[in-house]
Amino acid sequence: MATVTTTKKACAVNPLKMSQPLGAALAFLGLDKCMPLMHGSQGCTAFGLVLLVRHFRETIPLQTTAMNEVTTILGGMDNLEQAIVNIYNRAKPDIIGICSTGLTETKGDDVHGFLKLIRQAHPELSETALVYVPTPDYLGAFQDGWGKAVTAIVEALCEPVPKTAWQVNILPGCHLTVADIEEVREIVESFGLYPIIAPDLSGSLDGHIPETFLPTTLGGAKIAQIKQMGGSAATIAIGEQMRPAAEALEARTGVPYRLFDRLVGLAANDEFLAYLSELSSTPISPKYRRQRSQLVDAMLDGHFFFGGKKVAIGAEPDLLWQIGAWLGEMGCEIAAAVTTTHSTLLEKLPAAEVVIGDLEDLEKRAAGCDLLITHSHGRQAAQRLGIPFIKMGLPLFDRLGAAHQLSVGYRGTRDRVFELGNLFIENLPEHHADSWPLPGESHETVPQSEACH
Amino acid sequence: MNALVRKVERVFNEPACPTNRGKPDKERKKGCSKPLVPGAAAGGCAFDGAKIALQPIVDVAHLVHGPIACEGNGWDNRHSASSGSKLYRTGFTTDIGELDVIYGGEKRLFRAIREIIEKYDPPAVFVYQTCVTALIGDDIETVCKRAAEKFGKPVIPVNVPGFAGSKNLGNKLAGEVLLDYVIGTEEPAVTTHYDINIYGEYNLVGELWQIQPLFDALGIRVLANISGDARYREIACAHRARAAMMVCSKALINLARKMEERYGIPWFEGSFYGVSDTSQSLRTIAKLLVQRGAQEDLLARTATLIEREEARAWSRLEYYKARLKGKRVLLFTGGVKSWSVVSALREVGMEIVGTSTKKSTPEDKERIREIMGGDAHMFEALPPREMYRMLKESGADIMLSGGRSQFVALKARTPWLDINQERYHAYAGYEGMVELVKQIDRAIYNPIWEQVRQPAPWEKED
For strand A333-339 and strand A310-314, is the pairing parallel, antiparallel, or unpaired? Predict the structure, then answer.
């Protein structure tokens, strides 16, 4: 329905987009005992680290090959080798997730080749999985990096294994929060199914108090679990960004996949639960029947305040779709939509236009809207526009509990109806005596002198 | 790139730095940054350092020429405050794509500069080089020169790609950029014998404004603060100051020295953290200004102000001294902050059980030894696991550090206070010292500690 345009500007102003290697690194942070490693200059890691620390309010394990000018030109083999050996000696991770950057991709480092040589030279690394994903900064965006990393994880670790009827794989996109993943797990388990979730940020970045302080991730999908994914009855991919990973898993192991492009909204969740019910041959539990009923009621109570509201959204494609398509179903008008990278979903969005651009593009189009939705960097725009602002996505560096924002499922959707609806209520226009003036010609129909009596 | 290599060599060869002078020739060439260990490195790159030093010039546009990571992953993330223009908080980047990498990004850069000038009309545009655009050979110096000619406005190349080195080197190279392109290009409307420069004060959370009233009371004018709440024009006029203070340890030492060599501006290294350090800094500024022709009575006026403000600070600190006496502090921060905060906390009777000296110079370390006496517990580096164990065994009542290690303290259920750039409170001068102590008191005496340290009822031992 929407026309997709790309901004023609030479200068991006107030970026919405973040880089691919950071998305890839976050995917690796959803694996247990993992150390993500960016193959680039130390700044690539430092900027990403600060961003993730501020969003999750957690220690983030993230390392760098610390490339400099000379090592870049000579090739990064030595730095990569040193980094892997140092990480192994210090942290003994189960897996090292290597993401390339713009720097090493421009040089053209053959990391696959390097890794072969490093493996030969270091038999002590035989128990450590080394997963490499090429993610140049100058291509794609954060969610592309996440998707590519999960595909690389699947291709490196998954093999066909004997089938387990009640086991399912869940491949969540990076637009799902820790709370969203927990909700999906709970729903799936209610059907008697055993989910393997990868990556699983709800295990690693949910903000728990660990027993000790290790230099790797503490929790998340275990390598042993990922290796069992080839034995599942089905794969559930959440978000279009996960299609390549789900396809790769199917191609390698024969596990069929079903993709849900979002889990926010009544119909989307009906479809999800009906699928799970059929897959498990188990009826939908009273708990979720009740929750569905609560969501329907929330929609009835709330629709008055959503209908006709103009909303401006800046988000990565899968998050834009998740929130935008749902707001369309609630009667809102998506008056401005800006995103970071291409996706087949963009054209389907109930909006006239989707711009691949920046927050300046969003700000320009958001004037006169009733609500702005984007990540924390929208704060300056929201202030200038003077319109209500809901923070969604990543980074949320000025919010507590960013990881625990729930949107999916009947319950998550219900709570979002309340949250946004309350904001609309708070901002209902106040009327004055002169709010409804008659047009000039209406005054002329009655002569002034008579009207006075 | 050759120009950059030569520039880096010159910056590493710093005559004003005693550490640097103490090294044999060969070592000196390697510079002051410790070699980075792949897989065990932390901290920002040279580009990061240059941007930190220059971004507080608030009325100019800061344009990052590179792929999205360099600006997109880290823009508007520091609390450097402005009393006017907010343009410095706008993220500008050429966000180069694959085709730019193949065909070169110079044309895109030129167009980007044009767009910024047409839309925002800033007094100047600062253009930051990054690794990828340096590697493909984009000549930002020439592009900036041409843009400056075409648009009749200063367009300043900051040729400090991340892979040139560490954040500290980036700070220094930013100083060189100002010396090469900005300082001395404009003249102030009036000059006085009371004009000073401050180097290395970034006005984080508005800290400069805790000091400014003291200067105002003495009739001292900050001509250029390089850089915090700074305007382009102020920096351009910085060469007319009569004296200068270098705040952030050695980060801008090259700038301080060259300002003295070129323009005869004497300088000293001081700190505004702690009561006695603040007083000492004010005294030194007054002394330097009088030496350069200010009225002699400035000294007496400064002494009076110091006496009055110290007394006011101490009376406000009295309440906390009783509550904080003997409380043990573990301090993890870099450079100048170590010794200046150590001395500040000892002033209120707290005990420093350990301090990191990771970013400190040998001089800084010597100063810590002096302040702490023989009982200095200095850590070069403390792995998080060790830090966690130490805190869990109640080795300290509070940890003061930067944001990245906060969770080690918090997960060990130990009070923690942010003293690095991401903090929300200002700690400079007499006001700041009272605030710091107040925040430490709040952290230590918050009632949550009792609660969160209790195990769940079902985990209690019989």
Answer: parallel
Which residue in chain B is spatially nearest to A12 when comparing CA positions? B93
Contact B48, B71 (CB under 8 A): no
Residues A44, A100: Cα–Cα separation, whole Å: 10
Gap from A399 CA to chain B (nearest CA, Å): 14
Q: What is the pTM of this model?
A: 0.94
A20-139 and A167-289, same CATH topology: yes
Contact at CB, A18 and B69, closer than 8 angstroms: yes
- Best of B5, B47, B68 to substitute, by most chain A Cβ atoms within 10 angstroms, is B68
| Rounded distance between C-alpha atoms, residue B163 and residue A71, angstroms | 9
Helix (H) / strand (E) containing B246: strand B243-246
CA distance to A220, A257, A316, A318, A324, per residue, from A321 (Å):
26, 20, 8, 5, 5
User: Using CA of residue B321, residue B327, residue B333, residue B339, what is the dihedral sign?
Assistant: positive
Report the CATH architecture of A20-139.
3-Layer(aba) Sandwich (3.40)
Helix (H) / strand (E) containing A207: none
Residue B294: CB atoms within 10 Å: 23
**Residues in chain B within 8 Å Cβ distance of A57:** 407
| Partners of residue B166 in chain A, C-beta under 8 Å | 42
Q: What is the pLDDT of residues A234-280, one digit of tens each?
A: 999 999 999 999 999 999 999 999 999 999 999 999 999 999 999 99
In this structure, the strands spanning A257-260 and A234-238 are: parallel
Q: Residue B92's beta-bridge partner residues?
A: A13, B63
Q: List, in order, residues 6 or more apart from B139 with CB less than 8 Å away.
A: B106
- Which tens digits make up the pLDDT trace of B229-258? 999 999 999 999 999 999 866 789 999 999
Residue with more model confidence, B278 or B2: B278
Closest to B131 (Cα-Cα) out of B153, B102, B163:
B163
Tell me how far apart the alpha carbons of residues B238 and B197 are, in angstroms, rounded to a whole number. Answer: 7
**In terms of residues, how long is chain B?**
462
ipTM tops 0.95: no
> Mean of the pLDDT values across residues B268-295?
94
**Residue of A9, A19, A209 lying closest to B72 (CB–CB):** A19
Spell out which residues of chain B touch residue A14, defining contact as CB-CB under 8 Å. Answer: 75, 90-91
Please, where are the H alpha helices in A57-194?
A: 69-74, 77-91, 102-107, 111-121, 142-157, 178-189
The residues, ordered by sequence, that sit 6+ positions from B397 with a Cβ below 8 Å of its Cβ are B327, B328, B329, B414, B415, B444
Mutate to test the interface with B, among A13, A26, A84, A130 (most CBs of B within 10 A): A13
**Are the Cβ atoms of A41 and B48 closer than 8 angstroms?**
no
For chain A, what are the domain ranges? Answer: 20-139, 167-289, 302-426
> CATH assignment of A302-426?
3.40.50.1980
Phi, psi (deg, nearest 5) at residue A99:
-115, 130
Check if A125 contacts B (Cβ < 8 Å). no
Contact B149, B141 (CB under 8 A): no
Tell whether A50 lies on the interface with B, counting CB pairs under 8 A: yes
In a mutational test of the B interface, the residue from A213, A361, A380 whose CB has the highest number of chain B CBs within 10 Å is A213
Q: What would the two tokens of residue A134 be?
A: 């090429």
Q: Would residue B326 be called left, alpha or beta, if left means φ above 0 and alpha means ψ between -120 and 50 degrees?
A: left
Beta-ladder partners of A39: A100
Give me the architecture of the A167-289 domain, per CATH: 3-Layer(aba) Sandwich (3.40)
Report chain A's C-alpha Rg in angstroms: 25
- Distance separating alpha carbons of residues B110 and B157, to the nearest angstrom: 12
- Reply yes or no on whether the pLDDT at B20 is more than 80: no
Question: CA-based Rg of chain B, rounded to a whole angstrom?
Answer: 23
